[in-house]
Amino acid sequence: MQGYKKLIIDLAEKNENYIQKNIGDYDIYESSLQSRAGSWFFMAHNKEEKKLFIVNESSCFDQFRGQEKKIAGSKVKMVSLNHENAEILREFFPFTAPETIGRQGVSLGLGDRLGLASPGHIDTVRDKNITPVLAQQSIRELDLTERTYEDVLDAASWAVFQENYQDGFGADGDHLKSEEEVNMALDIGFTMITLDGSEHIDNSIEQLDSQQISKKYDDLISQKEAVGELEKMYLGNSFALPGGQQIKFSREQFQKIVLIYFELLNFAEEIYRRTIALLDRDIDFELSIDETATPTSPEAHYFTASELDRRGLQINSLAPRFCGEFQKAIDYIGDLDRFESEFQVHAEIAEEFGYKLSIHSGSDKFSVYPIIGRYTDQRVHVKTAGTNWLEAIWIIAENDPELYRELHKYARNNFAEATQYYHVTTDLDQIPSVEQLSDRELLDLQNNEDARQLIHITYGVILTARKEDGSYLFRDRLYKFWREHEEEYRRALQQHIGRHIEELGLA
Ligand SMILES: [Zn+2]
What is the pLDDT of residue 18? Predict the structure, then answer.
């Protein structure tokens, strides 16, 4: 306890610049030292846990729940990083609470699967003109990792405090599909809502011939008068975009778009009116239509944007399903020239309606990043998420090859389960057997696309695997490992996410 005492004495009696490295077996995060209302605050960790330390009594001191000690004449509270304390933290240190990111500028969705990645993410964006959305999780990801929105937001707040990152961050309830889900995220204090309308997109229309389309369309018109009104607005007109492109609809194309997207618009409007429109605070509202089989043509995007606008929905961003494929963990699959020419129009549509284009599954899509950077003119939202999980796993491969082999084999044996949730075209036969690879060669799997996808989508399978007695098969061991390799993880993220930022032209 010698070092601990010394720290307290120094904090209490000397000046704020002095930081003693060790308190007992706890290491202090130097960046976290703050004073408020007469108390000193800092975070520290030992092998088992992280804690918030508060020195000297004050109104702040009393609010936090924790274990009190008297050391060298000073009162010290050791505070667990639980939800109750995180709420108090956000109150006393407003920079640890999420805020809206608005409709301008570059923002990066950096969903943190494990609740461990935010310090590395913060390092990566600090001093750049990028607003990070540090808390970003879909319900699917919550379920697959057995986490809650409280955990996700709290992890971001504690990380922001630890790193003394005061430039603001967002919290995105990602891919929410119902009023209940939206309200749950809003109640916890999320500042961004990504409403996933994919299930309200009619994927059967693309398969129909023109006769079937026009029959279906006539049926819809006979039921919904409003659809007839749309014809007058869109058919026969051409719509100029800010960059000089024109949007025009042929009759058949228009009918198809209405059939595919009409229900989506109704759904988005209904949820918006019942949730976001009723709030007395700002929300970054995103509509995502990326997780569907139907690619969003520029015309479909224009129609959707224009109709949302006409219905009075204020959106901050929209995520189309671009042509080609944005599969997890690997580069873009598809025709880059076509992607570029369509992307240019998508970007102009977003500009016309005053919102950001949102790029989902953005991790590792290095070949399209220069295009995204070029046409969005520093006004775009890019989401990456699972890639920080992959980075966490490569650190295991590097430092504990046997544990990696175990995880890899488990992932492989349970791959089918994970493919229920993700669309990938992984060929397991292209992945060499980990038993035959040397420790050194294991690291090359980072560059094997099939191995990347295998590990990427099995995070839930791995994190929630249990032994017969109900205890976790890997989870506790993994978290222990990551706690001990915090700095390596931070550096890996800086490098990997940093490359994304460079390719976007923002470094
Ligand atoms: Zn998405």
Answer: 38
211 Cβ neighbours under 8 A, 6+ residues apart: none
How is 142-160 classified by DSSP, letter by letter? Answer: HHHHT--HHHHHHHHHHHH
pLDDT tens track for 256-268 = 999 999 999 999 9
Taking the centre of ligand 1 as the mean of its atom positions, its distance from the CA of residue 198, in whole angstroms, is 10
CATH topology of domain 95-387: TIM Barrel (3.20.20)
Choosing from 172, 286, 291, 348, which is the catalytic residue?
Answer: 286
Please indicate, yes or no, whether the overall pTM of this predicted structure exceeds 0.85: yes
- The structure tokens listed for 486 are 């915090």
CA nearest to 457, candidates 424, 499, 498, 491: 424
Q: Is 91 a catalytic residue?
A: no
- Residues 125-152 have a mean pLDDT of 96
- Give residue 69's pLDDT: 84
C-alpha 455 to ligand 1 mean position (Å) = 19
Distance from C-alpha of 111 to C-alpha of 100, rounded to nearest angstrom = 16
Q: What is the radius of gyration, based on Cα positions, of the chain?
A: 25
Q: Are the CB atoms for 86 and 154 separated by under 8 Å?
A: yes
- CA torsion through residues 7, 83, 390, 284, sign: negative
pLDDT of 234 > 90? The answer is: yes
358 alpha carbon – ligand 1 mean position (Å): 9
Q: Is the pLDDT of residue 86 over 70?
A: yes
CA distance 5 to 22: 10
Active-site option among 174, 181, 307, 450: 174
Parallel, antiparallel or unpaired: strands 356-359 and 74-80: unpaired
Q: At what angle do helices 336-353 and 369-376 cross, to 10 degrees?
A: 30
270 is a catalytic site residue: no
Is the distance from CB of 320 to CB of 281 less than 8 angstroms?
Answer: no
What number of residues does the chain have? 507
What are the boundaries of each domain within the chain? 2-80, 95-387, 395-494
